[in-house]
Amino acid sequence: MAQLEQQLExxxxxxxxxxxxxxxxxxxxxxLGALRAPAPAWRVADSPISGRGVFAVRNIEKGEELFxxxxxxxxxxxHRGRNLRTCIHCYHQPPGESEESALxxxxxxxPVCPDCAPSERHAVECQLFRxxxxxxxxxxxxxxxxxxxxxxxxxxxxxxxxxxYAMQANTDRYYMREVQRAAExxxxxxxxxxMLDYFYRTVCAFNTNAFESRCHIDGQEVxxxxxFPLAGLLNHQCTPNAAHHxxxxxxxxxxxxxxxxxxxxxxxxxxxLLWSTLARKIFLGMTKHFMCQCPRCQDPT
Length: 301
What we know:
This protein has helices spanning 2-10, 21-32, 99-102, 120-132, 142-146, 148-151, 158-166, 176-183, 193-209, 229-232, 277-287, 295-298, and strands spanning 42-46, 52-56, 65-70, 73-76, 211-217, 220-227, 235-236, 242-247, 251-256, 265-268. By secondary structure, the chain is of the alpha+beta class. Among the domains are: 1-81 and 156-172 and 197-269, SET domain (Beta-clip-like, Beta Complex), CATH 2.170.270.10; 275-301, no CATH class. A hairpin with a 2-residue loop joins strand 5 and strand 6 (220-227). The longest helix is centred in the C-terminal third of the chain and has 17 residues, at 193-209. It is globular and about 55 Å long. Mean pLDDT is 84; it is low at 1-15. It comes from Drosophila navojoa. One of its GO terms (molecular function) is N-methyltransferase activity.
């Protein structure tokens, strides 16, 4: 483990690739696929708030759906206190009561339902985790479960991988701990430098851009960690003009909360709207690495 930690120190995640705004917009269009409207009400452009943003190309009315988007990468949050007995693919509850009864019978250490266990989607992840040899096959290990969303970067195609690398990825040495904690759960966790670099880049992208997607399945709230590249471009304002909700844990829907004139930037809030100015500033500084300078934050009242 000491050797792995040394490698982690040596291989700092790469910064974002130097994709132009036009190249990023083209990658997002390809990512949206059939969900892209023939004449979208928005466009990707450089933002005076931060980096790139999303702007209205026409007047948008309050309540109008701006876009919907499928996730690029998604996986369990595996937070403490959450029910870990949730299938990693369909999010339904596997039969049984114990954690062990929810685990894949092939020995990958992942919770999976009987319907998803024989699927091709599970087969590739199962094979990879079995190759790494989980140390515990009688419990659901949160640290291994959380790394699953990062592992899924291996199965992106070339265009999807380019989009992942074009996303903003704030580096933080603490993010390396996520990979270290996952490594402790396996006998043969990968140590190849290129693979570790890929892990780090994805962890940074997740921690910079991920949404906690919430939906209800089998009468329980299911929370996933998901990357939505277009929604992730919406810059923060403490008085935003758009809001979002989730469908099925893997789709985000963004809607205008007020009339947005043509040319205006479309924004959302990264914080709770009723938080105090101090609470918002602390949260944004610690989790998003910026200090908000919006009119609400600058208002002394």
